Amino acid sequence: MATTSDIRNGLCIEHNNDIYTIVEFQHVKPGKGNAFVRTKLKNLKTGRILEHTFSAGHKIHPVRVERRKFQYLYKDDMGYHFMDNETYDQINIQESMISNPGMLKEGAEIEVLFHAEEEIPLNVDLPQYMVFEITYTEPGVKGDTATNTLKPATIETGAEVRVPLFVNTGDKVKVDTRTGSYVERAK
Fold first, then answer.
1. Can you list the pairs that 12-16 forms with residues at least 24 positions away whose Cβ atoms lie under 8 Å?
2. pLDDT tens-digit profile of 122-177?
3. For the domain that residue 42 is a member of, what is the CATH number?
4. Contact indicator for 75, 81 with CB cutoff of 8 Å
């Protein structure tokens, strides 16, 4: 059992029968009244951000979580299948636990956040940037480069990304997996 004095960024706690991670906190000691801790909590299952204020000395329940490396294998009607890189065990994860499933490429190395005591997967973290091949895009028109115009392009996973006019089918591009936006052309 811990108290509000143990709060720090990244700490995982149990709050309202759910598991949250502390994104940001601020200890406040007003001139009048008792001290308190203002926090921003992120729900590990839904990704929702919640603002909550704890009074000073409030008991919190820290939760032990582990990050494990997995490799994405395939998707079927049961969900997304991943393989542990160390034990070669396979797990099945539902789409709702993955932040941007359209950016999952077969063979990609990802991190899965596990509740350590109960061995339950909580969240899937994709790498921030991944390289994809463009499978289809309209050809750019010569001379149409006056502005930063973007066109739709389909990447190898089937997701759609907006890319600059000079990118063609068969090119490899670096994409930000959190937002699904084009970063640069890959070599």
1. 12/44, 12/62, 12/63, 12/64, 12/65, 13/41, 13/60, 13/61, 13/62, 13/63, 14/61, 14/62, 14/63, 15/41, 15/52, 15/60, 15/61
2. 888 888 999 999 999 988 766 666 677 888 999 998 899 999 888 889 999 999 98
3. 2.30.30.30
4. yes
Task: Share the mean pLDDT of the chain.
Answer: 88
pTM: 0.73
Q: How far is CA 142 from CA 93, 145, 165, 166, in A?
A: 45, 8, 9, 9
Spatial contact of 170 and 134, defined as CB atoms under 8 Å apart = yes
Domain that holds residue 40: 2-62
- Check whether residue 113 and residue 139 sit in a common domain: no
Strands 90-93 and 36-43: unpaired
- What is the rounded distance in angstroms from the CA atom of residue 82 to the CA atom of residue 79? 10
Number of domains in the chain: 3
For residue range 65-96, what is the model confidence (pLDDT) as tens digits? 888 999 999 999 889 999 998 899 999 998 88
CB 162 within 8 A of CB 182: yes
Residues contacting residue 47 through CB under 8 Å, at least 6 positions apart: 99, 123
